[in-house]
Queue: 2 jobs
Job 1
Amino acid sequence: MTAIETTGLTKRYGEQTALEDLSLTVESGEVFGFLGPNGAGKTTTIDLLLDFVRPTDGSATVLGYDAHAETDAVRDRVGILPDGFDLWERSSGYRHLEFALESKEGTESPDALLERVGLDRDDAERPVGDYSKGMRQRLAMAMAVVGDPDLLILDEPSGGLDPHGIRTFREIIREEAADGTTVFFSSHVLGQVAAVCDRVAILDDGELVTVDTIEGLRERSGVGSRLIVDTPNTGLDATILTGIDGVTDVTADGDQVRISYANPAVKAPVIHRLVESGVSVLDFEIEEATLEDLFAAFTGSDGDPSRNRPEATAETERVGTPAIDGGAAAPEAVERDAEVGR
Ligand SMILES: Nc1ncnc2c1ncn2[C@@H]1O[C@H](COP(=O)(O)OP(=O)(O)OP(=O)(O)O)[C@@H](O)[C@H]1O
């Protein structure tokens, strides 16, 4: 079964096209990365999948259900960590988890959920209004995995996380995937997607640029890795490396020479040629091609997050709120209970 299928999905806000003709299939059990700079249309896509906004054109199914006509069935089975989610500031972390457990009929223990995301029990007693950004993000992740969802949708999940938190989230994603959950993971932090995703889609300016495995993207982009050589010989003549098959570019800058290559086997001949030509090699390191390089190769941009950010218009058209529970129930229920504490 396909977990997500969109056909010609399009969203326009007046003159502004947020998403154009997106046709995409995410297979059940995949960890799928959805990449693009700020303003590329990632959140819009997720909002369309969850029926928080309505498409201008096209359609989508999620877990086999129509995203619009069968919204409740979709939201029951999907765990969501939305971008820019709201928490109920006066309620404790525990109360949030209880609420998620109730609305998703989850059977997990709140303490086990806290442990998974690395939140202290003491902190879970405090109102979330006192939480740091990373703590909020961890709580939101704990709520997203409640009830063993069939599909986990994570919109920019690593925002505010420290490196340990990023590792924790990565482990959670792997555990969920090993358990058969499909993971749809949007990010503009390109490097973080490579570690966990089976396939990635690159979205740019509302349009799908490409879909492939990381390996496939590397091969098709022709983006290779770089050998960086430290040398006291400044002003090196790059032509001394001419004729070594697989070397794609050489730049000398001060006491460093950067040699780009498509074939990893060129490293030894390059070092040999440099030494042979009288160049002192003090040190060298290998810089693997990053996803940023791939992004630049496919979109002709550097993935600058501010690049695609026109001012949003006053028009909203939002028909739901990306609440942390995926719109399962009204937040007032939690606010009411907040008065009595956890
Ligand atoms: N309610 C709205 N009204 C007008 N334009 C909007 C609205 N929502 C989104 N847009 C525009 O649609 C485009 C895509 O926005 P979207 O939030 O989907 O991007 P994104 O890839 O999720 O970005 P980010 O990485 O910043 O979350 C942007 O140009 C944005 O300004």
Job 2
Amino acid sequence: MPSSVMPTTTGAGGRTLPAAVSATGLRKSYGDKTVLDGIDLYIPAGSIFALLGPNGAGKTTTVRILSTLIDPDGGRAQVAGHDIATDPQAVRAAIGVTGQFSAVDGLLTGEENMLLMADLHHLPGREGRRVAAGLLERFGLAEAARKPAAAYSGGMRRRLDIAMTLVGGPRIIFLDEPTTGLDPRSRHTMWQIVRELVAGGVTVLLTTQYLEEADQLADRIAVLNDGRIAAEGTPEELKRLVPGGHIRLRFSDPSAYRSAASALRGADLPHGASRKGDAPADEALTLRIPSDGTQRELRSILDWLDSAGIEADELTVHTPDLDDVFFALTGGTDQSRKAVR
Ligand SMILES: Nc1ncnc2c1ncn2[C@@H]1O[C@H](COP(=O)(O)OP(=O)(O)OP(=O)(O)O)[C@@H](O)[C@H]1O
């Protein structure tokens, strides 16, 4: 395939989706330590893809390979339609990368940092100033633009870092742990920034140790563990991989609750739900019916509720959260669970 042709796949409705990033069989070892043991990735243009994994899983190594900072020992990858091995310059021209170690120079002001990037991208002076001012404004840094970046908070530095990445107008952005160490407010601001980037047509590959972050942002998630992709899919698909989903019925009338609970005990529900469905003794008057969360099962449970004359005041579907998935897939201990949160 010529290096300028983007690989494609057939998406929903038979549409052909161009890949912003595609990789097959990426391998990397340091000495006798295998860091990546054959990674395949497919990231459609205009989407957010999260590489989720514990410390040392190989996330940064993957980003460094895809951004041509290091060579893989094996496998192939294309970024923006360019082969990382044969056309690294074109790859670099198409991407922006912000890493765990930021490019921000603390001695320079925010504005000076931006203008330096504009210079690096050979923007003429006036155009450079216009782009810099626009991005500083967009990222809420206009007021602090004349202050040295060393005086910025962690969240401001991270925003400046992304603003600097955007000076060259990249169509694909790699964000390596963009919110590690940020407080909840700054993390939410960063999430909003990522969403806006993608709304503007940019493709984002982000690495994260935070399950909630992947859940909030990503169209698709790959769980990286021990140098391999343990599972890949939409957040909802991943959550369906592990048990723990249920339908919750809440009643306000205690007698309706009691009769529903007794009907449920004798019921023959899908998914073996009936016997376990008689929820905890419950002051909140709720019943839980185990469910895999699929449309088919939900429909049959609703049909059964109708036929049994059960009408709850509230019905909610609970899928297992990514915590459940992550620890099922990575075999994490309580110790690593703490480290990952
Ligand atoms: N240059 C190197 N030399 C030797 N080992 C390395 C090198 N770079 C990475 N490693 C090792 O490769 C493994 C994966 O590292 P990587 O930084 O890709 O993980 P990560 O998933 O990004 O983890 P973290 O969340 O801690 O950043 C680690 O065990 C690390 O020590």
